[in-house]
């Protein structure tokens, strides 16, 4: 095989993509003042002055040139208005602002348009349970008469009129298209095909990723683009190559028929001037054992540059060969311009879970800083063949990449500390150490460490990239999956009960009789084991997907919930009726306010209630029946090492150096000495967000409901605000009538300190906190 397959492959077909600069612009004035009007080019909104899309602009820099808030006055920020979500749902939604209208989520997963100046409701499209959790897309025609909000809802793509709030039924098939199609798999075998992030709009197409789940035989994560007017498929890029396509030989023959994943569930970025979309891709399934996918496995764990108009691959770089650590790339590629050796270069920087920052020429894909292929250990698991080398960026890593007994958490109780010291001493550790079925392996960073979605931002004109990261480890040991319907052991049942408490009890209750979610104590009469696995892995309604729970644990949870062993109802039992966990549909309450519609496109409701009838459970005919291994996810080890647990690292990519690095956040249970640096937060702190301003302020959130303003040049804390709730939703900044605002979703009940603050009287309820400077006195 050609070794170049595993490295970056440049295709200079980019020359055909819009090299002639667009010099004409169309100035479009909406209902705001001319000062705040959106200035547009043919390729979309001119970036950095508005927040009309997830991440602020197509390049996902989270950068703003609004200049009202600066280093000197940021301490004067105060709450301008607050919009309560009126429920207990954790919203991770990034509000967008078009003219004077803000779009956000609340009130039982309703899409809500509010006045961006005061939060007054304009319209509510109610009960969109299953909508894209992180945000949505906006598109408008050149004359602005046609304005659309575009989003995934369960397994459909739908649109809503941005001015009226009503579904656009001329889109697709009476208002929706099925995202189970266009994957070269039987649609009846696919459980989940939508993504938690909204994708990107370019010209008249929307480019979408997906979150198909991480279990064996999940569906492939091909990148698809659809016309925003008709819903017709524009192009598909096969992330798992098919016969005759580049990279096919990096897999076993016909692996594309049964391998899943290699999906973009994170954040993609677009160079609007060149028409290039940069797509970060995840690992193949199964994440931690790859005997059925021997090879480098393109395009898993790659950043891929695609022609946004055709889907043609321009270049790629693979950051992990044959991934067996779940090192998905999910953080937004940062499109920056750097001055390197006196030459101005448009570049793209990508941060990874393993703690590396890679930087490439945005057009050619050539690395701007050396990347070294270094030998890594072999696997000792039967059938597995770990790739012999892995790429190491020579830029300083932003996370720790090793752990020893001396590195363990000093704040544990003595008994627990002794237990963990003995445990870690018996493991193997080190970056890219393969998992084993004979001993535990400590991965540092683990699958929830390093950089995740929401964790990158930049000052694109200065070549500065900011990475929020977690020093979180995972402890793994592979276990061979028992044959189907094998009676569950007492030890496995105990582990299943623990898994239920950690993942399910808060919604379904200690006695499975329901809490904020439905009762499931009679689930065995309504849904069989295979349907249960699909439902939990793919999610439904307000229940998010739990794709990280392995097959063995899912079987155990089903046995624990039903008390009937691993078999449950016979294989031919119904897979469940619409609603909840297969029970009868519950009527969704219509919230108070100016409700104009409910539920999205009417015909899509019945479609989304359908469960897959041909779930793939075995390898196709003619393919060897490979052994199956699973492993716990490792989430319980986020506090394994000593602090700092969370940091922000600022890179000056003109020089390839760290400009500054700062721990931030503090666990309320650990006293902080006066004048000492914060230690970070050991758990619940992944997937936060940042906003960078041209005035030198870096806003960042962290677990326990803390909002920070840093000096973007040196990391000094300028201002700090304790939110009433934690936040997992990205922030936005915008300007109306000459006044700049910062909106922060504070909707999460997680976090020790925030949980205590929420009990205090007089605090804002769960909702969107909107900050601004006080009006000047006349």
Q: Which strand order does the major sheet show?
A: 1-22-21-20-19
Shape: globular
**What's the number of helices?**
7
**Rg, Cα atoms, Å:** 25 Å
In CATH, the topology of the domain at 1-52 and 140-287 and 290-319 is named Methanol Dehydrogenase, Chain A
CATH superfamily of the domain at 1-52 and 140-287 and 290-319: Quinoprotein alcohol dehydrogenase-like superfamily
Extended strand count: 44
Helix content: under 10%
- Show unreliable segments: 1-44, 565-586, 750-754
Nearest-integer average pLDDT: 85
State the distance separating the first and last CA atoms: 74 Å
Sheet having the most strands? 5 strands, antiparallel
Strand content: 25-35%
Architecture blueprint of SSEs:
Elements: E1 9-10, E2 26-28, E3 38-41, E4 44-45, E5 63-64, E6 78-84, E7 96-98, E8 101-106, E9 110-115, E10 121-126, E11 137-140, E12 147-153, E13 156-161, E14 176-178, E15 200-202, E16 205-208, E17 223-227, E18 233-237, E19 269-271, E20 276-280, E21 302-307, E22 313-318, E23 334-340, E24 343-351, E25 357-361, E26 371-375, E27 389-393, H1 414-425, E28 428-429, E29 441-443, E30 456-459, E31 464-470, E32 474-476, E33 479-480, H2 490-503, H3 505-508, H4 529-538, H5 551-562, E34 595-598, H6 602-609, E35 629-630, E36 646-652, E37 657-663, E38 690-693, E39 697-702, E40 706-711, E41 717-722, E42 732-736, E43 739-746, H7 752-757, E44 767-772
Parallel strand pairs: 5-38, 10-34, 28-29
Antiparallel strand pairs: 1-22, 2-3, 3-4, 6-44, 7-8, 8-9, 9-10, 11-12, 12-13, 13-14, 15-16, 16-17, 17-18, 19-20, 20-21, 21-22, 23-24, 24-25, 26-27, 29-32, 30-31, 31-36, 33-35, 36-37, 38-39, 39-40, 40-41, 42-43, 43-44
Helix pairs in contact: 2-5, 4-5
């Amino acid at each position: 095989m050609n070794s170049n397959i595993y490295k970056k492959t440049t295709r200079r077909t980019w020359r055909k993509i819009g090299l002639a600069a667009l010099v004409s612009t169309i100035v479009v004035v909406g209902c705001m003042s001319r000062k705040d009007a959106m200035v547009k080019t043919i390729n979309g909104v001119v970036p950095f002055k508005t927040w009309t899309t997830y991440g602020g602009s197509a390049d996902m820099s989270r950068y703003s040139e609004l200049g009202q808030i600066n280093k000197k006055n940021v301490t004067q920020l105060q709450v301008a208005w607050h919009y309560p979500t009126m429920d207990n749902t954790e919203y991770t939604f990034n509000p967008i602002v078009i003219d004077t209208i803000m779009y956000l989520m609340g009130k039982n997963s309703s899409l809500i348009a509010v006045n961006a100046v005061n939060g007054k409701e304009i319209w509510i499209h109610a009960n969109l349970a299953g909508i894209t959790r992180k945000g949505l897309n906006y598109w408008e025609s050149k004359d602005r008469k046609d304005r659309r909000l575009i989003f995934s809802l369960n397994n459909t793509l739908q649109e809503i009129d941005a001015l009226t709030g009503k579904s656009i039924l001329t889109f697709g098939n009476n208002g929706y298209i099925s995202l189970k199609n266009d994957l070269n798999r039987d649609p009846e075998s696919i459980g989940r095909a939508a993504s938690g992030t909204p994708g990107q709009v370019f010209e008249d197409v929307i480019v979408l990723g997906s979150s198909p789940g991480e279990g064996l035989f999940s569906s492939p994560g091909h990148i698809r683009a659809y016309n925003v007017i008709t819903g017709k498929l524009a192009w598909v890029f096969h992330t798992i190559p098919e016969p005759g396509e580049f990279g096919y030989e990096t897999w076993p023959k016909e692996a594309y028929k049964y391998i899943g994943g290699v999906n973009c569930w994170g954040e993609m970025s677009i160079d609007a001037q060149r028409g290039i979309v940069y797509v970060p891709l995840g690992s193949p399934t199964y994440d931690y054992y790859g005997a059925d996918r021997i090879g480098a496995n393109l395009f898993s764990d790659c950043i891929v540059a695609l022609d946004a108009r055709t889907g043609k691959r321009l270049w790629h770089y693979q950051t992990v060969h044959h991934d067996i650590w779940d090192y998905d790339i999910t953080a937004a590629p940062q499109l920056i311009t750097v001055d390197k050796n006196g030459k101005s270069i448009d570049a793209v920087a990508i941060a990874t879970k393993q703690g590396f920052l890679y930087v490439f020429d945005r057009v050619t894909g050539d690395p701007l800083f050396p990347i070294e292929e270094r030998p890594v250990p072999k696997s000792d698991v039967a059938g597995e063949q770990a790739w012999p080398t892995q790429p190491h960026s020579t830029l300083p890593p932003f996370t720790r990449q090793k752990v020893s007994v001396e590195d363990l958490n000093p704040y544990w109780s003595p008994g627990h500390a002794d237990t963990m010291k003995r445990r870690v001493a018996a493991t193997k550790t080190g970056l890219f150490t393969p998992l084993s079925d004979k001993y535990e392996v400590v991965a540092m960073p683990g699958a929830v460490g390093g950089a995740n979605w929401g964790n990158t931002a930049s000052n694109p004109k200065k070549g500065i990239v900011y990475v929020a990261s977690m020093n979180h480890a995972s402890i793994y040991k592979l276990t061979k999956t028992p044959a189907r319907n094998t009676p569950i052991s007492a030890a496995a049942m105990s582990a299943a009960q623990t898994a239920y408490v950690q993942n399910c009890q808060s919604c379904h209750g200690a006695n499975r009789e329901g809490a904020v979610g439905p009762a499931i104590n009679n689930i065995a009469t309504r849904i069989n084991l295979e349907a249960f696995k699909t439902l939990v892995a793919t999610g439904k309604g307000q229940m998010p997907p739990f794709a990280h729970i392995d097959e063995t644990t899912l079987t155990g949870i089903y046995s624990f919930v039903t008390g009937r062993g691993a078999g449950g109802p016979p294989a031919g039992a119904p897979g469940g009726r619409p609603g909840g966990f297969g029970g009868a549909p519950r009527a969704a309450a219509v919230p108070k306010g100016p409700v104009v519609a409910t539920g999205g496109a009417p015909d899509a409701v019945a479609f989304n209630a359908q469960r897959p009838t041909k779930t793939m459970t075995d390898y196709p005919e003619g393919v060897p029946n490979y052994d199956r291994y699973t492993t716990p996810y490792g989430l319980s080890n986020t506090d394994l090492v000593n602090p700092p647990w969370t940091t922000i690292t600022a890179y000056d990519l003109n020089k390839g150096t760290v400009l500054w690095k700062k721990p931030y956040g503090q666990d309320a249970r650990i006293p902080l000495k006066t004048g000492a640096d914060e230690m970070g937060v050991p758990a619940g702190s992944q997937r936060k967000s940042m906003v960078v301003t041209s005035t030198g302020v870096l806003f960042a959130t962290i677990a326990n409901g803390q909002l920070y303003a840093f000096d973007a040049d040196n990391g000094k804390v300028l201002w700090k605000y304790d939110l009433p709730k934690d936040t997992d939703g990205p922030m936005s900044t915008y300007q109306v009538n000459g006044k700049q605002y910062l909106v922060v979703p504070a909707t999460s009940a997680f976090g020790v300190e925030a949980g205590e603050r929420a009990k205090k009287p007089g605090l804002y309820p769960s909702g969107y906190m909107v900050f601004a400077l006080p009006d000047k006195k006349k």
